[in-house]
Write a structure and sequence with these properties.
By secondary structure, the chain is an all-alpha fold. The chain is built from 9 helices and 2 strands. Helix 1 packs across helix 5, helix 5 packs antiparallel against helix 6 and helix 5 packs parallel to helix 8. It starts with 7 loop residues before the first helix and ends with a helix.
């Protein structure tokens, strides 16, 4: 049965699992790469046609294209205000951590979908959370702009920030479910949930 993180021990489990997984240099680097890719993806979808034209242009050099992509990111260019920028980086960072947890769980625990309900459910929800929640808000906003429905986002109370807020919630939940699926195991020789060992002993 899928549970929600309602107690302090649930949040400690999530924090400890993230800290132990990202303590692996390879998983930390992987999380940073995913975070960067997601931040760029969300940022460029807001003006996708123009970005594609610039990137495919033969007359522009590689240096200019890299500088252009960098300027699309929040706080490095003028495209986003502070609230949008913080949410984009939050979604990107949570996605990076989520995908790193998922990769760790699949690779290190030799997880099979048949083996254990909690782990399999955590992996499925983690995948959906990382894939859908991270890219969904940016891509949705980009598609709405392309098809001429920008007025729809403008009529929302927070002008589309709702999608990013929802993405943050989904990503946190999916990370918790992944961490819950690893309960009872070890990461780098440390128990995922030391409380569980105390209650058994």
């Amino acid at each position: 049965m899928i549970s929600l993180p309602t107690s302090r021990s649930d949040w400690r489990l999530l924090g400890r699992t993230i800290r132990l997984v990202l303590g692996h240099p390879s998983y930390l680097v992987f999380a940073i790469v995913v975070t960067t890719a997601v931040a760029i993806l969300i940022s460029v979808t807001q003006n996708l046609r123009f970005v594609v034209e610039v990137l495919l242009s033969d007359s522009l050099g590689l240096g200019f294209k890299v500088e252009f992509l960098t300027a699309m990111l929040p706080f490095l260019g003028p495209q986003y205000d502070a609230t949008h920028g913080v949410l984009i980086y939050a979604v990107a960072g949570l996605t990076g951590a989520n995908v790193a947890l998922l990769a760790y769980h699949l690779l290190e625990h030799d997880l099979s979908v048949e083996g254990g309900g909690g782990s399999a459910a955590g992996v499925v929800l983690g995948t959906l959370g990382a894939g859908c929640a991270a890219c969904g808000p940016g891509i949705l906003a980009g598609i709405v702009g392309i098809v001429g429905g920008a007025g729809l986002l403008a009529n929302l109370p927070y002008e589309g920030l709702e999608f990013s807020m929802l993405a943050v919630v989904v990503l946190v939940l999916s990370m918790y479910w992944l961490a819950d699926g690893m309960r009872g195991g070890e990461i780098r020789g440390c128990p995922v949930d030391p409380e569980m060992l105390r209650t058994k002993g």
